[in-house]
Amino acid sequence: DSGVTQTPKHLITATGQRVTLRCSPRSGDLSVYWYQQSLDQGLQFLIQYYNGEERAKGNILERFSAQQFPDLHSELNLSSLELGDSALYFCASSVGRDEQFFGPGTRLTVL
Amino acid sequence: TQLLEQSPQFLSIQEGENLTVYCNSSSVFSSLQWYRQEPGEGPVLLVTVVTGGEVKKLKRLTFQFGDARKDSSLHITAAQPGDTGLYLCAGEDSNYQLIWGAGTKLIIKP
Predict the structure, then answer these.
(1) What is the pLDDT along chain A (111 residues), one digit of tens a residue?
(2) Chain A residue at shortest CA distance from B10
(3) CA A83 to mean position of chain CA atoms
(4) How many angstroms separate the CA atoms of B15 and A82, rounded?
(5) Looking at the complex, does the CB of residue A42 fall below 8 Å from at least one CB of chain B?
(6) Range name among A35-44, B43-52, B86-95, B96-105 with the lowest pLDDT average
């Protein structure tokens, strides 16, 4: 158990819909990262927040957005969903530049 | 754009064999991390190497950081079925961001 929690574990929705994925970082970790992993592929970095502020942006689509709240939990919002958005979405947290601790992921299926 | 290339992309070997996985770039990294991801789970950090030429051992796993800090390797001795997983390398760039490789999918057959 990494200490990072993600909900929901599974999500099935239809094209065009909007979903919200939630992440609670490890206690004390200020940084939260979001990644997308398609089947049998590596991690695609989406976005990083540090103590409520956006720190870095990766290959995040304009249809996707995220935020980190004062209690440090984070949400990733995916809208106008397409079939190709089906993937595992991981959240990770870290104290600073150290090891990233990953949550169990949310498996999103868009039908 | 900095890239980390991992090779091979896929490797399937018998239990007891040795193997090496490579992580290469044309860019210099201040440190490099190796993670292992098992099916249905998030990646877990195995090791961080920081100094050029550094070698770290974790039981049957040996990690090496290239002298120029542009490449790294992971060598597994006498592989076991429990070593099966996706091995990911990630290098820290000058902006303190992690650049991720695409991963090596390793299957160890009993």
Answers:
(1) 889 999 999 999 999 999 999 999 999 999 999 999 987 677 899 999 999 999 999 989 999 999 999 999 999 999 999 999 999 999 999 987 778 999 999 999 999
(2) A40
(3) 18
(4) 41
(5) yes
(6) A35-44
What pLDDT, on the 0 to 100 scale, is given for residue A111? 96
Q: From chain B, pick out residues whose CB is under 8 angstroms from the CB of A94.
A: none
Output the average pLDDT for chain B: 94
The answer to whether A18 and A81 are in contact (CB under 8 A) is yes
Closest by CA to B89, choosing from B1, B7, B14, is B7
Q: How far apart are CA B69 and CA B5, in angstroms?
A: 14
Q: A97 CB near a chain B CB, below 8 Å?
A: yes
Per-residue tokens: A97: 């530049």
**Which tokens go with B6?**
């991992």
Q: Do B42 and A41 touch (CB under 8 A)?
A: no
Tell me whether the omega of the peptide bond preceding residue B8 falls within 30 degrees of 0, making it cis.
yes
| Tokens 């991720």, located at residue | B100
B49: nearest Cα among B70, B64, B28: B64
Alpha helix segments (H runs only) across B14-106: none
Q: Structure tokens of B34?
A: 């190796």
For tokens 């409520």, name the residue. Answer: A52
Contact yes or no for A42 and B103 at CB 8 A: yes
